[in-house]
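Can't attach files on this board, so I'm pasting raw text. These are the components:
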Amino acid sequence: MHFEEFATARSPALLRYATLLSHDPELARDLVQEVLTRALVKWRRIERVDEPYAYVRRMLTNEYLSWRRRRRVATVPLTGAHERAVEQRANPGDDLWNLLAELPRQQRVVLVLRYYEGLTDNEIADVMRCRASTVRAYASRALATLRVEITTETIRNYQEAQL
Amino acid sequence: MNTVDDLRRTLEDQAGRAPDERGLIEEARAGAARIRRRRRMTAAAGTAAAVLGSALVVPFAVSYESAPPIAPAAPSASATPAGPRRGSDLTVGLAPGNGLTVSAYLLGTSSQYLTAVRDDGMKYNLDVANPGTFGRDPIKGSVRVRVGDRDGWYLARPAPRWMYSKPTTEHLLTWETRDGFGVTFSSVSGKADLLATAQAIRFVRPAPPNGPLQLGWVPDGLVLTSVEVFNDRKTESILLSPPVKKSPENNGISVRAESASPGWLTRWTEGTPPTHTIAGYQAWYRKLPLSRDGAPHAILVVTAGDCGINIQVTGPTSFADLERLVGEATIGSCTSQDGWGPVVPQADGE
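---
Top answer:
Structure tokens for the assembled complex are below.
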């Protein structure tokens, strides 16, 4: 697959994923741009793997985790932009989204991969290069913080991950 | 109390705030061009150091040549010197009669990569780094083995999960040939099989691989720096760039030949009529607005039989040059290997 084909087909999905991780569309775009740039440099290798999207998503996850560590710099919005930002925060009125923003980054990654990207805990462990039990611990803490009820579905996911 | 469905809905809703993807590819191209340029400059400095080093070493090494056969158990018959190579040259191959078929060649100025598939479907990867570009330290956890008359290193490790759908063990064999090429041969087939199959590796005289598009002429100031031929997919991609010493800018041409499917044609021509006829082939040429460094500023699309050729220009190459490049090329099939030949002429004196 040509890089352009991949990027055209997958950029929207990568941007959505990055937006959910970063809670910031501008940062999401920066993250995806950075990752696509590096993916293009090593595209010859990436295009040979079974699932290039999974590989690039993993690059994006790592980029997000290290970006946040490396470059967490407070920014001052311009006049007007600031007002719009305040409006945007108020508009969604979504407590869950605001709570998500407060989660530690690893916990947020786990939730987004599990409940948005639909990965199993074992697959998440592979993305994050940690044990599945660590993923479950992150998920458990995050769900408790978000006050998400543990249903039979959550338990089923847990059991699947054990397999 | 929230539910998992609430969480899913929230994520779905918020994903809709994702920004537009327009311009991302162009920005990625420009960024990649900057990275490659930095690497080329670093490599040029490294090569200069290596040349200086080899000038000191060669007098002691001459008595060993010709190039050694490569085999882990018993030396094989190949004794053809590898010699210097261009970015388009292949200096390694697999002996016939082993049930192995090369499915892809990926060649660059500093390395060669081959993927081979055996009759039973088992895949093997062969990565050969040019002299001076191979890390000599053994991979952590590897064990020493003999590769012909050379020391090599064998390693079994979990294969990256993104490469295989199931957890798998990857086996690697790596060694440095006497003339300095760094070889890494890998597969998931198992240690014994890997060592046995490695006996099929041969070093051959530098020559370009065969592909559907065979260039007969390239614009002045450009050299072929990268070739990718996928025998299985019947595609070929080549990159023509200025030599590093003359220009550090990424002002070259990328050419890709692949099957001209209806989808391909629509994607690249947008259903518009051809703008030109070149050597009897229908062609679409369009200039793009000047963008950042590394982004193409002209695209030429050509259909030739079942092949679609896409040429992207990031440098000063004129339409007349592109016309000549296509006019003097030989184009075979992109759905079979009919009419395939060396992607560029052999080097002088070969």
